[in-house]
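ENTRY TYPE: paired fold submission
RECORD: A
CONTENT: sequence, then structure tokens
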Amino acid sequence: MPNKRNAHFFNLWAGKRNRARFRAEIAADLTAVFDLAAAGILRALVAARIPLAEAAGAMELAESETETGTVTGKVVLIP
């Protein structure tokens, strides 16, 4: 990455080729992510929490992020 950080991307369809290996790798990676989140080291940046009944507005807000850069973080729907 340009900022000298590492990123790991998952191709969820790749699991069809070697299901056992894929499940083992994703289980190990998700365990590490959840451990970091539980320890407070990794935190999700939430831009807005919006009721599910207002999903259309939430989608508009989320889409505005890519178009104008106005939203920083994730838009979370609350059931």
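RECORD: B
CONTENT: sequence, then structure tokens
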Amino acid sequence: MDYPVGTIDQPPTADDDIGDIDHIVGFHIRLAHGAVYRHFTETFADLDLTQKQVSVLWLIDDHPDIAQADIGRRLQMDRATVMAIVNRLQKRGFVERGASTADRRRQTLHLTTTGHEALVQARESILEHEAWLKSRFSPRETAQLVNLLRRIHE
């Protein structure tokens, strides 16, 4: 029997039964996102960084002197969101803006020493968070999940 909520060993109780919504893929994606986001915020509480801020720091570290527009394109964020994130990171002393040597109209970004140190701490927390998340799947299932999720967002 395929139980909609609970596990094979523990069928759902009347209080757990969510009805036909259990067959809605988007509903389960939302629940999964909520669980992952809650764990992320608990893991990162001491660092006072958001998921988007960490993503921006990481991308800047991987691509020194990247342009803000390229961050938005790669992380699928609108221009205003990227600008607000970069402004906050700059205010905290994590990133610095500069003019592109190739195109003076473009602003480039690079991490400060403080920003790099924050990213090192964030990466440690990410490893903890990823271990929690991946513990629910085998390595093969994790790879399959990533590939399936890419189909949705690419």
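NOTES ON RECORD B: Confidence is low (pLDDT under 50) at residues 1-8. Strands lie at 66-67, 95-99, 107-111.
STATUS: closed
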